[in-house]
């Protein structure tokens, strides 16, 4: 008769990061581990001879040692019908036996050899484990099958070796298992009481603490969410016809267009700072362009600068007049004026004035008593748009001041000039303009004492990518994919200005975006982590593999989705 299994370190595995070819790219990863003969020294940050490729998602004090169980190896051997899964295949440093994810709890401490360890979190859902096993859906399966594995931090450094017995020295606070904590983050129907328990576990890593705190904040907020679903409620799905009510020239190159409904009904309320995406009949397929609202209210107003060689802006200037009809998606965007009462800095350059002008309108409509600093940069007085309008709005606010900088006279203000303004250090700043301007002014505002977390900016065009481990970023601007196009539904990437027909050669919309060098964001690539979540402006999708938890209404996980009809994505 067999007795209970004695928890044991079966294999100690290490490996240094390497560059691995993958789908025409290069991935820098430490997922490839091989067994070594011990004893080996375990230190605070990792094991001697071991390393991690992506320190944003792996490694560090909280994730110094990755642990996986032989029992899970046996499970996956049966699941995949494979017999080639050797210790280290799942990227773990310690292959152990006798301690399942249902049994091990966050905060548990264990002595192995000379060292002592503490359990800090489950495995991170990362696409590289799928690369290692040749199973792209592996991150999804690890969560769905409740077999993630877990991380140790090193409490006491020391030598360890294969065959060492594993002895628990302390039970973690609240005894919440690794499997339960993993499900709490990645699976639906969360137990709120369990969330409150999780954030009360000191040993839980800070990243997971923050994620659970945000989930609790969403649950506890009056609306049940930290912010409304942008572009869905209020708003509408897809595109609708709006009529031009009025146009007005603001400068030699800037035209304002006021839009209203075609049937006289009220427009949904937009947040000051959000943008409209227009479908402009200036080509086939009709190009998409996004323009910030320069004021909100009974009508939506956009203000468009005519760009040299700008096909769409030229068409708008030459063709839109009162009575014209154009298709628009609902206002959306996360750059908008908050409800705080702190001092506010509205800073812009060129046509970047439009979203912060909408914020100034909102402050004036509220008769706000906040300290308001209006700072605008333009080439010269002739190119200045909205000068009189801004002056009237500033004059209506009791604690507002303005400053306009002309680059033709003194150049763009630098850090010293911004610091000399005496901006309040507790201000919330909103920036909009060219990318380099925003980077420079963010540094200048931080140098003037404003905390970086209180500096918000609007980036025109695609968002910065999140591609963990990818070492060779695209060198080309977004483009149609190389080779023959597909014949399926049209997929439009609104921020990137690309429309391409779908082909089943791609496993997901994410893969199509990558083929077009559209900047993307991902981590698991299998419908778990939600890093790839993208607003769905128009159309419908299906999931090739159902996500473990569906994203918010009006958004899509592009790593697992393909179009069922033509789609427009805010990407």
From TrEMBL:
InterPro entries: 2Fe-2S_ferredoxin-like_sf (IPR036010), 2Fe-2S_ferredoxin-type (IPR001041), Benzoxazolinone_Detox_Enz (IPR052353), Beta-grasp_dom_sf (IPR012675), Cbr1-like_FAD-bd_dom (IPR008333), FAD-bd_FR_type (IPR017927), FNR_nucleotide-bd (IPR039261), MoCF_Sase_C (IPR005302). It holds the Pfam family FAD_binding_6. The keyword Iron-sulfur applies. Gene3D superfamilies: 3.10.20.30, Nucleotide-binding domain of ferredoxin-NADP reductase (FNR) module (3.40.50.80), PK beta-barrel domain-like (2.40.33.20), Translation factors (2.40.30.10). The keyword Nucleotide-binding does not apply. Residues 237-338 form the FAD-binding FR-type domain. Residues 34-169 form the MOSC domain. One of its GO terms (molecular function) is pyridoxal phosphate binding. Keywords: 2Fe-2S, Iron, Iron-sulfur, Metal-binding. Coiled coil: none annotated. It comes from the Bacteria. PANTHER family: PROTEIN YIIM (PTHR30212:SF2). This is Sulfurase. The lineage of its organism: Bacteria, Bacillati, Actinomycetota, Actinomycetes, Mycobacteriales.
């Amino acid at each position: 008769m067999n007795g209970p299994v004695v928890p044991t370190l079966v294999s100690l595995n290490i490996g240094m990061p390497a560059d691995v070819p993958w789908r025409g790219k290069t991935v820098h990863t430490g997922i490839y581990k091989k067994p070594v003969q011990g004893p080996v020294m375990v230190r605070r940050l990792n094991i001697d001879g071991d390393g991690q490729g992506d320190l944003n998602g792996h490694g560090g004090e909280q994730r110094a040692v990755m642990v996986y169980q032989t029992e899970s190896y046996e499970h996956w051997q049966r699941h995949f019908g494979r017999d080639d899964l050797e210790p280290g295949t799942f990227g773990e440093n310690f292959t152990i036996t006798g301690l399942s994810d249902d049994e091990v709890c966050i905060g548990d401490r264990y002595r192995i050899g000379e060292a002592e360890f503490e359990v800090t979190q489950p495995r991170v859902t990362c696409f590289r484990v799928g690369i290692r096993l040749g199973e792209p859906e592996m991150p999804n399966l690890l969560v769905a099958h409740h077999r993630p594995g877990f991380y140790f931090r090193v409490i006491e450094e020391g030598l360890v070796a294969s065959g060492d017995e594993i002895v628990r020295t302390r039970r973690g606070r609240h005894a919440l298992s690794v499997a339960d904590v993993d499900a709490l983050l990645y699976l639906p129907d969360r137990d709120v009481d369990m969330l409150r328990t999780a954030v009360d576990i000191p040993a839980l890593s800070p990243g997971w603490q923050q994620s659970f705190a945000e989930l609790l904040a969403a649950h506890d907020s009056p609306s049940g969410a930290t912010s409304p679903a942008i572009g869905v409620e209020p708003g509408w799905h897809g595109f609708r016809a709006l009529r031009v009510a009025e146009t007005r020239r603001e400068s030699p190159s800037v035209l304002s267009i006021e839009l209203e409904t075609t049937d006289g009904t009220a427009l949904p309320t937009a947040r000051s700072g959000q943008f409209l995406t227009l479908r402009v009949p200036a080509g086939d397929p009709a190009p998409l362009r996004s323009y910030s609202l320069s004021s909100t209210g009974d009508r939506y107003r956009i203000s468009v600068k005519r760009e040299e060689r700008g096909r769409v802006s030229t068409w708008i200037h030459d063709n839109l007049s009162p009575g014209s009809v154009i298709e628009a998606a609902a206002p959306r965007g996360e750059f908008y004026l908050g409800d705080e009462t702190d001092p506010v800095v509205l800073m812009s350059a060129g046509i970047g004035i439009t979203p912060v002008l909408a914020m100034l309108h909102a402050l004036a409509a509220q008769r706000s008593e906040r300290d308001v600093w209006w700072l605008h940069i333009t080439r010269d007085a002739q190119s200045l748009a909205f000068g009189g309008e801004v002056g009237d709005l500033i004059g209506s606010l009791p604690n507002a001041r303005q400053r306009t900088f002309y680059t033709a006279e003194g150049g763009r203000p630098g850090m010293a000039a911004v610091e000399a303004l005496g901006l309040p250090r507790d201000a919330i700043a909103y920036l909009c303009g060219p990318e380099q301007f925003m980077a420079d002014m963010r540094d200048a505002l931080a140098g003037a004492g404003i905390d970086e977390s209180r500096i918000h900016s609007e980036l025109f065009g695609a968002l910065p990518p999140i591609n963990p481990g990818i070492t060779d970023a695209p060198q080309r601007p977004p483009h149609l994919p190389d080779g023959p196009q597909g014949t399926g539904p049209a997929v439009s990437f609104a921020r990137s200005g690309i429309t391409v027909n779908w082909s089943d050669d791609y496993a997901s919309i994410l893969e199509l975006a990558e083929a077009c060098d559209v900047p993307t964001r991902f981590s698991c690539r299998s419908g778990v982590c939600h890093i790839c979540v993208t607003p769905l402006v128009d159309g419908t999708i299906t999931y090739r593999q159902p996500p473990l938890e569906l994203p918010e209404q009006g958004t899509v996980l592009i790593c697992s989705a393909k179009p069922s009809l033509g789609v427009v994505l805010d990407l």
